[in-house]
Write a sequence for this structure.
């Protein structure tokens, strides 16, 4: 796999080619990925995968017109043809008054922080196989598990580099490791399946694979022989594994492009107390070894640690260059780039601060409610905030877990759900978006 210097050199050359062919401005982003994955099932090796890929994307501007194109052909003639084609496409594109690059004074300029994104450790396929076997063995050893969908272990590395014609040229490397296991419990039509997984930047930060396997087995067995619930309004408690999705909906609604398109349920609610005043939601792109840590965004703008929600209110919109210009706002360091296309918006590591009570105390006064462990379906309307999703989980009776439930739907509106949200004190920081156990009163549950 190429190193950062090689990726930067390719980007510099491609930007220079575009400028020489008539582009007024240009930027290029290069990515390279390498991964090894080992999968096992029923104690036997099932698959060994090794993948490696490189691509480079070029965006050019001719006046207010722009075009974007990407390739995996790094031969000089291929890159020359790519640049020529991009400039020709831009000349025929419609004008966009908001398109452009970040100004020189808005770009990241300083020492690159050491975010500990790259683990120097090399993990060979034999070690990955042992980890995958250990995870699956531990899952299958849980009483009640009847079959397996397998265990896996993965090691990966990536390089990203960005160069703009306004003088920005930076890149960095990162690594990633993961374990997972998925098993089956029950027989016949009563079979249930579930999984557990964990990812980390550094191999040493992963828990023992047997721990992941036991979690997978216990989650699966806990789902056997589910029943439905009586329909009605009741408290709903979200397991941290699924509760992070609620923050994902919030962040999506805070996106500058969504606000510019008037397609966000938060539009007009900038000064409204959407959450209890004690709720704080933080974004930290500088979290050491964080899964989404980064020093700068997809347009070269510096990232910053910031609250997304404070004193119950959102703190503003998350912008890239185009949405900032359209809304008349400053840049917030949230541009996201893939190889081709215009930048979108994404947040870095986010978390909702922990509350003061344990999960057991959070549920103690619930006479009849639902603890959600799984969600499915896409019933979230980001324009209106209406929320309706299929769910599985555990019934709560008199503050205690009282057996698995399935074939139910939970519904509400996201603004109402945010306002009714109460966090427990069990926050753990190992996901890209982290939340503690969350309780939301007054949701509608549709069951039998």
């Amino acid at each position: 796999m190429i190193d950062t210097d090689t990726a930067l050199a390719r980007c510099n050359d491609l930007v220079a080619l575009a400028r020489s062919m008539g582009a007024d401005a240009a930027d290029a982003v290069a990515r390279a990925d390498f991964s090894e994955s080992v999968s096992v099932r029923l104690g036997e090796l099932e698959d060994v995968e090794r993948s490696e890929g490189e691509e480079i994307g070029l965006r050019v501007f001719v006046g207010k017109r722009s075009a974007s194109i990407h390739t995996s052909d790094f031969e000089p003639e291929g890159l020359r043809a790519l640049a020529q084609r991009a400039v020709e496409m831009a000349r025929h594109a419609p004008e966009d008054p908001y398109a452009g690059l970040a100004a020189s004074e808005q770009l990241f300029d300083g020492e690159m922080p050491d975010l500990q994104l790259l683990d120097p450790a090399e993990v060979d396929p034999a070690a990955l196989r042992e980890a995958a076997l250990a995870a699956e063995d531990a899952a299958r050893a849980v009483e009640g598990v009847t079959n397996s969908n397998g265990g896996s272990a993965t090691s990966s590395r990536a390089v990203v580099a960005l160069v703009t014609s306004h003088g920005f040229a930076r890149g960095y490397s990162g690594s990633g490791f993961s374990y997972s296991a998925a098993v089956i419990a029950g027989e016949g039509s009563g079979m249930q399946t579930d999984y557990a997984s964990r990812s980390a930047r550094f191999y040493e930060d992963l828990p023992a694979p047997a721990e992941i396997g036991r979690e997978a087995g216990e989650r699966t067995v806990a789902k056997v022989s589910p029943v439905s619930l009586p329909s009605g309004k009741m408290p709903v408690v979200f397991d941290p594994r699924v509760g992070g999705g609620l923050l994902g909906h919030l962040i999506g609604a805070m996106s500058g492009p969504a606000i510019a398109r008037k397609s966000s349920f938060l539009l007009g609610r900038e000064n409204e107390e959407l959450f209890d005043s004690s709720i704080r939601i933080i974004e930290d792109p500088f979290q050491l070894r964080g899964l989404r840590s980064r020093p700068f965004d997809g347009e070269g703008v510096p990232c910053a640690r910031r609250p997304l929600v404070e004193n119950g209110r959102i703190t503003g919109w998350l912008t890239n260059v185009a949405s900032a210009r359209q809304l008349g706002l400053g840049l917030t360091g949230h541009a996201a780039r893939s190889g081709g296309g215009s930048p979108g918006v994404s947040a870095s590591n986010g978390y909702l601060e922990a509350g003061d009570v344990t999960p057991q105390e959070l549920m103690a006064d619930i006479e009849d409610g639902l603890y959600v462990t799984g969600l499915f379906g896409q019933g979230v309307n980001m324009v209106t905030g209406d929320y309706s999703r299929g769910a599985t989980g555990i019934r709560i009776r008199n503050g205690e877990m009282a057996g698995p439930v399935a074939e139910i739907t939970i519904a509400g509106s996201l603004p109402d759900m945010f306002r009714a949200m109460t966090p427990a004190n069990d926050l753990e920081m190992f996901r890209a978006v982290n939340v503690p156990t969350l309780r939301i009163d007054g949701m509608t549950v549709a069951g039998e």
